[in-house]
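Structure in, sequence out. Go:
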C-alpha cells in the first residue's frame, strides 16, 4: 500500500470513528420514557455508535501502521494504478434505482435489485444464486419492517394496481 493510500484510509478511519462518536453523543440526547425498564430506544444507537467508533479506530490504527511501514519500505505501484470503478458504479446504480423506483415498484423489488447490485459490486458473478438470495433478503426485510416493526412500506403502484 502506498503512503498516500494509507493516509487516505487513515482519514477515512478517523472519519468513521468521529461519526460513531457523534452518534454516541446524540444518542444520549434521546428522551426515554419511564416505561422502559432496561431496553429502550437508546440501546441500538449506542450499540451502532460504539461499533462504528471501534471499527473506525481500528481502521485508523491499521493504516497508521501501514504509513509507518511505507515510509521505510520501497514504494510499490505507481501513478499508473487506477481504481476499479465498476464495483462503485454497480452499487451506485442499485442505490439510484431504489431512490427513483421506490414509489412505483415498491420496497421488495427495489431492495432485491439493490442487494443484487451490491453482490455484483463485491465481485460475485453467480447471478442466479445472487438473485435468489436478493429476493429472499428483500422479503425477509419487508416482513421484518412491516410486521415486526410496524412500518408502512409501499407495495408500489405497479404491483398494487393503483396509480
Amino acid at each position: 500500500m502506498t503512503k498516500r493510500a494509507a493516509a487516505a484510509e487513515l482519514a477515512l478511519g478517523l472519519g468513521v470513528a468521529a461519526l460513531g462518536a457523534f452518534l454516541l453523543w446524540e444518542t444520549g440526547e434521546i428522551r426515554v420514557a419511564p416505561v422502559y425498564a432496561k431496553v429502550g430506544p437508546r440501546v441500538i444507537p449506542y450499540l451502532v455508535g460504539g461499533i462504528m467508533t471501534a471499527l473506525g479506530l481500528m481502521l485508523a490504527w491499521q493504516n497508521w501502521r501501514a504509513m509507518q511501514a511505507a515510509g521505510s519500505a520501497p514504494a510499490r505501484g505507481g501513478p499508473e494504478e487506477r481504481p476499479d470503478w465498476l464495483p462503485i458504479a454497480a452499487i451506485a446504480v442499485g442505490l439510484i434505482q431504489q431512490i427513483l423506483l421506490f414509489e412505483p415498484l415498491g420496497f421488495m423489488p427495489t431492495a432485491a435489485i439493490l442487494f443484487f447490485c451490491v453482490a455484483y459490486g463485491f465481485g460475485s458473478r453467480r447471478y442466479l444464486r445472487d438473485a435468489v438470495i436478493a429476493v429472499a433478503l428483500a422479503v425477509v426485510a419487508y416482513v421484518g419492517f412491516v410486521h415486526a416493526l410496524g412500518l408502512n412500506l409501499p407495495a408500489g403502484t405497479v404491483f398494487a394496481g393503483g396509480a
